[in-house]
């Protein structure tokens, strides 16, 4: 089998030379009726702040981003699950009258196998957008416990269609062995806590015990669960517990974050801090529990005014007793340019500010020729990326 291949590399929404393909991520476009050519035209005629490597329909495939460049297709997971824009190839399946046609699926399978052969990617690393970020994509494959997805994977393996019963037994949602070893909390109180999948269904025979040390990834009030990494024997597992067990979690820095006498804005995504409207507010003089840092921003957990537990990232940390979970090896630097140096929201990203010659900055971390810095502005401290060759380490 072969499929007509088309190429259009005038898309601007990607990072050049930053992708090391380890995964193949399958999406659907979410439209009612579209084509590979139509999507290529849309994503190549303006800054869409999104992209994929390939678009597939019934009669052809169009590539719009080169495989060793990073497309913006699954960054909403912020690499929490080990899969992101810099280690994956994104494939979007186009829809025909609201569905993914059989021929489009066949063409996608052909493309996936071709990419697998090229990079040695195993079937286990052909994943859904869902596996990267919990976004319900490819949405068309979701009904009946993702039955069409498991059919897709079975066909990739060269096997027959997997039954829904087998799917339920062998693939409980989002329960899997994890290689995350760090912890940030301890389970307290009496009795075991039932382990759940992400539909809040109990996973038979799986419990978290009192005094177990866990890593709390997130608290999700709307879904009524808490996402955790917990120990069982000599292994760690990713799963969920009911939000009703929130009061049994004792964080390592339990309620040690003290807000001052003003509102502190909170964002649910670390990548939205200072870029979008805030999602929550930590009220004046309230306490919170620091959880960890992501992209330099501190994630805290706290109670809303109505008593519901929640969490999110803060841009302003006030006068805390210590710098919670601060990154190691932070260094100080001095800007060395003729006038000013642009600060960007990501590597080769959009300009969000400026630092000036001889200005002192804090280098939070480094990333292939770039520094992620903290710098002073008239509105307080901000963070962003700058070209490393223009900053001297003190």
UniProtKB/TrEMBL annotation:
**Broad class of enzyme this protein falls into:** hydrolase
- Do you know which InterPro entries this protein is assigned to? Amidase/PGRP_sf, Amidase_domain, NAMLAA_amidase_2, SH3-like_bac-type
What's in the keyword line of the UniProt record?
Cell wall biogenesis/degradation, Hydrolase
Q: SUPFAM superfamilies, from UniProt? A: N-acetylmuramoyl-L-alanine amidase-like
A Pfam family cross-referenced in the UniProt record is SH3_3
The record's Gene Ontology biological-process terms are: cell wall organization; peptidoglycan catabolic process; peptidoglycan turnover
Molecular function GO terms recorded = N-acetylmuramoyl-L-alanine amidase activity
Give the residues annotated as coiled coil.
none
Source taxon at top rank:
Bacteria
Q: Which reactions appear under catalytic activity for this entry?
A: Hydrolyzes the link between N-acetylmuramoyl residues and L-amino acid residues in certain cell-wall glycopeptides
The UniProt record lists the SH3b domain at 325-394
EC number(s) recorded for this UniProt protein: 3.5.1.28
What name appears for this protein in its UniProt entry? N-acetylmuramoyl-L-alanine amidase
Where does this protein come from, organism-wise? Answer: Clostridium perfringens
Taxonomic classification, please?
Bacteria, Bacillati, Bacillota, Clostridia, Eubacteriales
């Amino acid at each position: 089998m072969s499929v007509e291949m088309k190429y259009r590399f005038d898309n601007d929404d990607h990072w050049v030379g930053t992708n090391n393909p380890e995964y193949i991520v399958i999406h659907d476009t979410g439209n009612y009726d579209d084509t590979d050519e139509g999507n290529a035209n849309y994503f190549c005629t303006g800054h869409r702040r999104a992209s994929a490597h390939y678009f597939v329909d019934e009669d052809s495939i169009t590539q719009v981003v080169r495989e060793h460049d990073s497309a913006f297709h699954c960054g909403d997971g912020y690499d929490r699950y080990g899969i992101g824009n810099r280690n994956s190839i994104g494939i979007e399946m186009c829809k025909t009258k609201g569905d993914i046609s059989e021929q489009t699926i066949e063409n996608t399978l052909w493309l996936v196998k071709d990419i697998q052969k090229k990079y040695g990617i195993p079937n286990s690393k052909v994943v859904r957008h869902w596996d990267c970020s919990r976004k319900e994509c490819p949405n068309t494959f979701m009904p009946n416990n993702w039955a069409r997805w498991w059919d897709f994977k079975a066909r990739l393996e060269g096997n027959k269609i997997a039954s829904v019963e087998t799917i339920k037994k062998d693939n409980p949602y989002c329960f899997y062995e994890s290689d995350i070893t760090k912890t940030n909390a301890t389970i307290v109180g009496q009795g075991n806590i039932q382990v759940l999948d992400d539909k809040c269904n109990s996973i038979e025979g799986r419990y978290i015990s009192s005094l177990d040390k866990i890593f709390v990834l997130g608290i999700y009030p709307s879904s009524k669960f808490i996402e955790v990494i917990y120990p069982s024997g000599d292994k760690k597992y990713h799963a969920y517990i009911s939000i009703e067990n929130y009061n049994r979690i004792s964080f390592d820095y339990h309620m040690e974050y003290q807000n001052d006498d003003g509102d502190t804005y909170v964002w649910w995504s670390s990548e939205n801090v200072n870029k979008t409207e805030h999602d929550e507010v930590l009220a004046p003089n309230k306490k919170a529990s620091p959880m960890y840092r992501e992209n330099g921003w501190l994630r805290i957990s706290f109670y809303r005014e109505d008593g519901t537990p929640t969490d999110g990232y803060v841009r302003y940390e006030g006068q805390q007793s210590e710098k919670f979970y601060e990154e190691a090896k932070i260094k100080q630097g001095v800007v060395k340019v003729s006038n000013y140096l642009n600060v960007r929201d990501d590597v080769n990203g959009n300009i969000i500010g400026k630092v000036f010659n001889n200005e002192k900055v804090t280098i939070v971390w480094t990333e292939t020729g770039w520094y992620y810095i903290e710098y002073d502005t008239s509105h307080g401290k901000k963070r962003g990326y700058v070209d490393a060759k223009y900053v001297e380490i003190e």
